[in-house]
Amino acid sequence: MKNERDPDSKDELKIVKETLKNWEGDKNMIAMLLSIQDHLGYLPEEGMIEVARYLNISETTIYGVATFYNQFRFTPPGKNHIQVCMGTACHVKRGNIVLESWERRLEIKEGEVTEDREFSLERVNCVGCCVLAPVTVINKEVRGQMDPTKVDGILLKYQLGKEDETKRKKESESRTEEGCKESNDGKNS
Ligand code: FES
């Protein structure tokens, strides 16, 4: 397997190795892979390669097992990870309409990430809050009784939050520049 991803993969490899230290003497492959996914938000190739080395089995076997189970994700999640529950209670309460709304508004399908990597969308099984059905979980925060109008409202809130963040960043950069200029002027006078 070849690693064609960015420099972040070095940090990821470090995290994978640290995670595997907790499994010394244990040979539970699925639990190891899930643990790596919990730490990184997805299961990278490095994770599978390291588990293969650790258990002394082929990378192909690990890959075959990981792709067999649908709880594994193989691409990094977006900055905001959206999980739409499609368990029985949410399905009955028209969770599919909620999922379609997210897909339409984000212009991606479930399992995909937006081009700017701001959002990723995932369909999940029961998240344990059936009384609030239909449920969407955003960055681990549960949103209950979802409907398409709430999808619009939530996205608008994230958009405004991002604009505020960009504004704050620009203000702080310009303060730093001004500070440097004043300090240089002081030295030169
Ligand atoms: S089915 Fe959606 S929270 Fe249980």
Task: Characterise this structure.
It contains seven helices and four strands. With 189 residues, the chain is α+β, with helices and mostly antiparallel strands. The protein has two domains: 8-68; 80-159, Glutaredoxin (3-Layer(aba) Sandwich), CATH 3.40.30. The protein has a four-stranded mixed beta sheet, covered by helices on one side. A hairpin with a 2-residue loop joins strand 3 and strand 4 (141-143). Residues 1-5 have low confidence and may be disordered. The structure holds FE2/S2 (inorganic) cluster. Residues 85, 87-90, 126-130, 133, 135 line the site of FE2/S2 (inorganic) cluster (FES).
Which residues form runs of ≥5 with pLDDT under 50? 1-5
Number of domains: 2
CATH superfamily caption of the largest domain: Glutaredoxin
SS class: alpha+beta
Compute the separation of the termini in Å. 60 Å
CATH class of the largest domain: Alpha Beta
Helix tally? Answer: 7
Fraction of residues in β-strands: 5-15%
Level-2 CATH architecture of the largest domain: 3-Layer(aba) Sandwich
Bound molecules: FE2/S2 (inorganic) cluster
**How helix-rich are the residues, as a percent range?**
55-70%
Shape: flat
CATH fold call of the largest domain: Glutaredoxin
The radius of gyration over CA amounts to 22 Å
Query: Biggest sheet, open or closed, and with what strands and sense?
Result: 4 strands, mixed
Please trace the helix and strand order, writing H or E for each element.
HHHHEHHEEEH
Determine the mean pLDDT.
88
The largest beta-sheet arranges its strands as: 2-1-3-4
Secondary structure: number of strands? 4
